Amino acid sequence: MGFLSVLVAAAAGFAFGAVWYMALAKPWVQAANIAVDANGKPIDKSPVPFILAAVAMVLVAGMMRHTFALSQIDTAAKGLVAGLGIGLFFISPWIMINNGYSGRPFKLTLIDGGYATFGCAIIGLVLTLF
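The structure assignment produced for this chain is given below.
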């Protein structure tokens, strides 16, 4: 059941990312300086980023499950808050550091950090529902 919860939580995080980035596509493409065609669609349509994102979601959900088990995070409320904290206080600052040193706009940090924060909250919630 543990592996299944990780896969479902990872899928939920991935699905949330699809919604998040579709809603924020234009500002994200601009902030990330992605090359687009005349219709405003990214030129590079490689599936590699999506594959890597799916693998990353499984890794994040798996480590969160392990951490939750060790910390006895076993209710939906605890999972939601712990996931929110992981995204907000672990992942988002790291994104900010990377974007800051590479001279990227702070708007990109807000978009990507927002996804990390809310995506981890969703993963944490889903993990504790099993």
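Interim note for the steering committee: The radius of gyration is 16 Å. The CA atoms of residues 92 and 100 lie 12 Å apart.
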